[in-house]
Amino acid sequence: MAAQQLPLAKALNESLRKALETDPKVLIMGEDVGKLGGVFRITDGLQKDFGEDRVIDTPLAESGIIGTAIGLALRGYRPVAEIQFDGFVFPAYDQIVTQLAKMHARSLGKVKLPVVVRIPYGGGIGAVEHHSESPEALFAHVAGLKVVSPSNASDAYWMLQQAIQSDDPVIFFEPKRRYWDKGEVDTEAIPGPLHSARVVRTGSDLTLAAYGPMVKVCTQAAATAAEEGRSIEVLDLRSLSPIDFDAVQASVEKTGRLVLVHEAPVFYGSGAEIAARITERCFYHLEAPVLRVGGFHAPYPPARLEDEYLPGLDRVLDAVDRSLGY
What we know:
It is a single chain. The chain has twelve helices and 14 strands. The chain is α/β, with parallel strands linked by helices. The chain has a seven-stranded mixed sheet with strand order 3-2-4-5-7-6-12, with helices on both faces. A five-stranded mixed sheet has the order 9-11-10-13-14, with helices on both faces. Helix 3 packs parallel to helix 4 (93-100), helix 8 crosses helix 12 (313-324) and helix 9 (245-255) crosses helix 10 (270-281). InterPro entries: THDP-binding (IPR029061), Transketo_C/PFOR_II (IPR009014), Transketolase-like_Pyr-bd (IPR005475), Transketolase_C (IPR033248). Its cofactor is thiamine diphosphate.
């Protein structure tokens, strides 16, 4: 397979297939990942082709899934653990934070835990409670974890490959409402660094920075703003720990304005850290305060209200107007 159009979900499936083919130490484990192929069919067909010893259906026990993955990594395997939905990760949070994130430092660098934790996250699919959370800031705050999120099919394929090859634990957030968005995937390309940001659209008046599901919204906002003569740069952050602050700084030094967009609540969200850092780094370049657009500081609402909760085109464009109004 060279370059072809794939949905993001299929790109992840192909990436996992490639990893299983390339390295016999790669294992996939999680609830319904085997016979069912996952609730979003990300692991579809993999157990049939690679066997039950490598694509493992687990009990409904997230703490057990991650604990087992840690044990396998200690024995030299590279487990890829799926958490079925974002809101299900919290029973495993103790294992992730107290064990997975700490073992390398605890052993003074002697022990590596190459574990990938895949988490479908975010809303926009009309799901019930605990199926539409955006908990990425909770993990980015924890030293010892890498946290990334692709926004398109090509990045999904390559970033998952790079995450599996990493000797550090990686929390891999997949924007579930983008699973069916198609994009070109070139499996023979040379990918950029896992933790580098990428300019999606160049502009000169303002920078919109986002990741995961909100990159598409920001790109749409930039196109709408262009109809009014405004030149908006869109930056896909791709990684939340570490963050490519140099790329954000370079963009802001050019545009003088920054609006940060994410689905997660604005309060203590990842945008707050970026806003603070860029204010420190770019104080004399800023023409307006750094603004943030995100969800509300409230539990995720029922499906019929999620369009009001999620930051959409209008809220992003309102922030653009406010920034350009200074």
